[in-house]
Description:
This protein has strands spanning 16-17, 32-33, 48-49, 63-67, 72-78, 83-89, 97-102, 112-114, 124-130, 135-142, 148-157, 163-169, 172-178. It has 196 residues and is mainly β. The strands form 4 sheets. It has a 5-stranded mixed β-sheet, with no helix packed on it. The model is unreliable at 179-190 (pLDDT under 50).
Amino acid sequence: EELFYLVIDGDLDDYIGCTDPSALNYNPDATYDDESCIYQGDACEIALDFVAEGGNLFGSQNVYGSIDEYGASWYQFTSYDNYENLSISTEGSDFDTQLEVWGACDDGDYLGYNDDANGTLQSEINLVDITAGQTFFVKVFGYSSSAGNFVLNVNLYNASSITLNTEGGPERVSLSWNPTEPTLSRGTSFNGTIEE
Length: 196
């Protein structure tokens, strides 16, 4: 027969639980934090509202955050109208990101996933045929144990039809756009040749 001793480290009056008042499961009676705190955005069901966090659904305002190793941040937003395209990216983040986009938390599979986009360590997902009232849940997380500060951008848009007109002359080419000139960076020189 063996004899075991139980050693209790701490006051017998201690009550374990989440001691952070900003957590969803904060326990005001807890005197010892057991690292069980749950925060808004930790899971799909408690996703942060992208717009309420300062984001804009048309690409002009990003949301900024950070995640720890093996952590994730969830955001949700709803389309106001019908749009042809939806682009979601983490361009500008300072670590190797991954993205998932879900239509509902209990769906069997995501609508889109991406790890590395456009030759970078950041992520981008593009979806089409977005309908008014459609809600999306976005998971931002790192590749393996990657962690750091992330930038989340959402852009709902319709692809506009732009006609480019060209008119050649001696050592020059004139360009015009209809209905308007797109907002793109301009080159300052042309190193090719113009043939009639």
